[in-house]
Amino acid sequence: MLDARSEGYVTADGRQIGGVLMEMKNITLRFGGVVAIKDISFDIREGEIRAIIGPNGAGKSSMLNVISGFYHPQEGEVWYKGQRRPRMRPYQVAQQGIARTFQNIALFEGMSVLDNIMTGRLNHMRSGFLSQALWWGPAAREEAENREKVEKVIDFLEIQHIRKTPVRRLPYGLKKRVELARALAAEPSILLLDEPMAGMNVEEKEDMSRFILDVNDEFGTTIALIEHDMGVVMDLSDRVVVMDYGQKIGDGTPEEVRNNEEVIKAYLGVAHD
Amino acid sequence: MPDTLLFAMEAALNGLTAGVMYALVALGFVLIFKASGIFNFSQGVMALFAALTLVGLQTGQIPFSHLINAIFGTRMHHFGWTLPTVVAIAGTVVVMVIFAWAVERFIFRHLVNQEPIILFMATIGLAYFLEGFGDIMWGAEVKRLDVGLPQGMSGPVDDLTFAWFGYGFYMDRLEIWAALIASLLVISLVLFSQYTKQGRALRAVADDHQAALSVGISLRFIWVLVWSLAGIVALVAGMMWGAKSGVQFSLSLIALKALPVLILGGFTSIPGAIVGGLIIGVGEKLFDFFMQPIVGGATENWFAYMLALAFLLFRPQGLFGEKIIERV
User: Fold this and answer.
1) Could you read off the pLDDT of A75-101 as tens digits, one per residue?
2) Between chains, do B215 and A182 touch, taking CB under 8 Å as contact?
3) Structural domain for B221, as ranges
């Protein structure tokens, strides 16, 4: 069912998933003598929610950092939209339409929620800075358009009440949501979420899960997320890559992964006789 | 109206124009500090270097002529032309942008993620380098700078105040013009940082490098941009002060006057730099006016620092600076 060359597949809940959007081919990443990722290949398809899971230290975050250009693998290739991606800086990757959030939240603390989300639109602004500074001509129209998109995201994530609040004053759960909003405002082709539920209480986790599903459903955004909370991931994602000690030990639908011997071993441990 | 009050008003008005100039110098520091957390010790020398370059281009000096003459035994100093002021200013802007690029490329790119104190030390080194480089490039003698701004007593101010109060205020036309130009620059910088894409990116970089990268902002570009802006601010400051008192080494010391301004206004606030500059400008003139009979003059040399000291004791983050509360 999951032939890499196939045209896509239909999920359990009946959504049509498209072709390959991003493909990681034999990625190996080393830090000095430590091998963080060892020869891993997988793909991300258009419109799906793809999860990378694994115990702490499995190399999930490293993998996300490879995708978003913060790390450069020693071996292997990253293919994006049918082309091999050359070595790129993180800001170039972002300009290509890959937006991300961070495990420990990287927001502009001194700026308001609205300004933070507006930074997500930076790559969609084209007019010259003279007209921007004077709020004149195409710049005014462009700013208005961008504001409209941003307001839509704000509505969608239900953060209207804090639009003008400086991010520094927000509680953790809301900060996570603002970070998601900033990434969404960029209208990304792929949305990368680094442990979106980390440190949240049950209620916040439920909210976040709902938002992730809604984003995928409403905007058709392809989402790749990292999580070590198995339960959340299984409910959320269409396909799951399981990593352990830098290696891929499983790849498939949540159902397949759940029944995978290796995965059970990695998560539950195995009795030594 | 009593004479004392009129004299005080005159002093305050002159203080205001001086204050705008202080604000301008301080703004150069704030720009770089906001965007990179670097306290740029070389800001004053940048003003000197910019003014030297402006004079050099304007009068058609051959760069490095002393060096060339010493090596090749030639005797050439001038190309033999004089450039119009506007062209010379444009040329200087280009030089400052190249300087900004070089600073990023050869210094700060190699010091990413270092402690602020190390970056600060690097700017001290940069200050000494630039000081010597400016001397080699343009020569060390005192130069006169004429950018075509009017000088001498301002007639309209004199007439107007005479008509109102029966006493004509003395104001230097150069200082009025300098204040106007500085205000214009300050306003455009504020517009730039608040309303443009690059300005927003600049504020974003100032706040969080990693987050800025993840929304597609190139750090290197922003750093070159910021240093270029600081270079342009330095140029305007160097031009105004140079026109007033000649282009010479002491020009680089105006940066010291910016320190109390920054302590007053806060290192991270553009409005703070403006208000701080005005307070110090007016404050030192008024203080001098009222205290001169008692302490015997020359209070302008130390008043600003004393005020800064008082601020450090009672409001260390400045008037507008962000209060930093460490979470324990």
Assistant:
1) 999 999 989 999 999 999 999 999 999
2) yes
3) 3-252
